[in-house]
Amino acid sequence: MIVAPAARFVAPAAPSPVRTRPVVGMVALPAGAAGWWLVYAQLPAFAAWLAYDALGLARGSAAGAAAEFFLYDTPKVLMLLTVVVFAVGIARSFFTPEATRRILAGRREALGSVLAALLGVVTPFCSCSAVPLFVGFVTAGVPLGVTFSFLVSAPMVNEVALALLFALFGWRVALLYAGTGLAVAVVSGVVIGRLHLERWVEPWVYAVTPGRAVVTEPRRDWGGRLAAGREAVRDIVGRVWPYVIAGIAVGAAIHGYVPQGFMAAIMGREAWWSVPLAVLIGIPLYSNAAGILPVVQALLAKGAALGTVLAFMMAVIALSLPEMVILRRVLTVRLIAVFVGVVAAGILLVGYLFNVVL
User: Does the chain have fewer CB atoms within 10 Å around its N or its C terminus?
Assistant: First the structure.
């Protein structure tokens, strides 16, 4: 939403406490978890049966390998995504953007950038909320560099991305991604803050007067928190599943039809241009962690270097073209160019570093 220059933030009336009966949810939760695990454990056998027996595709063929990948990864990723988003929805009932803004307001630049990057991991965020969050942070006295640290960290190093990385690739890759993603967010915020580019923010942003009243968040019991988890599944999974399916389809095509070693030639350690090429390819794409991870999985299986693939994933998530279009409402083209340049430089460094070390 674009806020008019003369508009004021008006706090809504305090909502009534959210109180629901948690008994049914607490009883159904273990039963649902057991059923989820039984289905999840049968996915490999079911995908193989469906691809080779039901569809009659030849084992070892490109079409068979692609079909098995798609039929296995589609329910696997969607089931993982549902569980992760449900848990994230519960966790996020303890955190709000308003609380984040209060924590960051008045912090010094370096400490504020670190706190902003860490809070970006657990605070609800999507591209559509970039403008109101930016306006709210700036008008609350949060420094510009600290705000950018949050804007980089929130979409790139969120709980969904980390949980899916852990489930698909193990804790080492998830930890590497989290550490380097947070480093990129912190350093980008500090650099942008030191450049003192406030003059390149659209003037109307500073004309907005923050509201004086404090928004009272609803108090939740565990029934309410379980309801928040279910609502998160309906909202997030309901919005991203087409991107997940599209990502898995791309991954299946790579898995089945790209020759072994082809990706090693163009995205391997030996090709010095592979990392910048991956970043350039990633920026105009629009996806999220759930949609891009199947592509990452297929690229790694075909011999692409980990650093190059992580750089590609970071560029897709943190520097997506639609988010830049949205941020144009509050930032000048020059500041967007600086933002993209600084973050892209950090991503390039991460890609080259991993390709050398790992």
Answer: N
